[in-house]
Design goal:
The chain is globular, with a radius of gyration of 19 Å. The N terminus is likely disordered. Helix content is 29%, strand content 20%. The protein is built from nine helices and nine strands. The strands form two sheets. Strands 1, 2, 4, 5, 7, 8 and 9 form a seven-stranded antiparallel sheet that branches. Strands 3-6 form a two-stranded antiparallel ribbon. It has one domain. With 303 residues, it is an alpha+beta fold.
């Protein structure tokens, strides 16, 4: 019941986001300028055919900037000031309320931290997944459309509202993939994404269990890995055990989707699980906050 109450309350904030859609663009200008639009990388890859005219079309592939994802260390915090104003009232205390309700204990949900211990390297992030507010910019100059699009600025997943799973993993621990993935975690870097059967994020570590806790020596990689885990959760139906505000309209693809950093600095597009030595240098955030654009691989026929 507590989960339902929080979700219903949050629907009021969705209305606020819609009413301020002409305003929040100003607060996002710096992130917009950090988007690496070359990540779209459009290409004609062949011809396609159908029985009704026109009979011949072109087959294209490209990456679309589907999502904006932020990771933060403190519940209710945000990279974008306006987003923080909207989500903070409902998310700041949600972790404590939900965990206490699930365990029967008055447990204070602590802020996420990074433990740079040689023994553990344990990290934790809260993650927020939004429809990319810059998607309309992409739509205006893209000469292709394979269908499907985000609601710009809409929150699809907020980890604070999923604290029972994101922090404790009470359902995730029973997922058979969690046991297999966790056992592969220390050696995920030696597997290809495909070779691990979708259990590994390459050099970023194990995909399962999909929780905010992750072991990696790099804070930057910890943010990227938690961001992808959150996208994986956001694509699930609401009966999965996780609390998802609105399930994504697509399934993430470990092999083909990409990400690029837009805060604290801009980056090129990187493959999910790509070796950190090739891209993470100089990208550590001074405040522990990160923001990413999630690039969804698209392939379709245009007639």
């Amino acid at each position: 019941m507590e989960k339902l109450r929080l979700k219903r309350t949050f629907s009021l904030f969705l209305i606020f986001i819609g009413l301020t859609s002409l305003v929040y663009g100003e607060s996002l200008l710096s992130l917009q300028g950090a988007v690496n639009w070359s990540c779209i990388s459009p290409r004609v890859i062949g011809l396609c055919f159908r029985r009704s005219p026109p009979w011949v079309g072109i087959k294209v592939r490209y990456w679309e900037p589907a999502l904006l994802i932020e990771t933060v260390k403190r519940p209710g915090d945000s990279v974008v000031d306006l987003f923080g104003t909207v989500i903070r009232p409902i998310t700041e205390g949600a972790s404590r309320v939900l965990i206490s309700g699930a365990t029967g204990l008055d447990v204070a949900a602590t802020s996420g931290t990074t433990t740079h211990s040689e023994i553990t390297n344990t990290q934790f992030n809260e993650v927020h997944v939004y429809g990319n507010p810059f998607f309309n910019i992409f739509s205006t100059f893209a000469a292709f459309d394979c269908g499907g699009a985000p609601v710009p600025g809409q929150p699809y997943y907020l980890s604070e509202l999923d604290s029972v799973e994101w922090r404790l993993g009470l359902t995730e621990i029973f997922n058979p993939k969690s046991l297999l993935s966790a056992s592969l975690g220390p050696i995920c870097s030696v597997f290809s994404i495909t070779g691990s059967g979708g259990l590994c994020m390459g050099s970023w570590g194990a995909l399962y269990p999909r929780r905010g806790w992750l072991k990696h020596q790099s804070e930057v990689v910890g943010s990227a890995a938690d961001a992808y885990r959150a996208v994986s959760i956001a694509s699930l139906e609401t009966l999965s055990g996780h609390v998802v505000l609105s399930p994504l309209w697509f399934r993430p693809n470990l092999d083909r989707d990409k990400m690029s950093m837009v805060y604290p600095v801009s980056s090129r597009c990187i493959n999910i699980g790509e070796n950190p030595a090739l891209w993470e240098s100089g990208k550590t955030s001074p405040n522990g906050k990160y923001a990413w654009v999630y690039w969804r691989y698209r392939e379709c026929c245009l007639f």
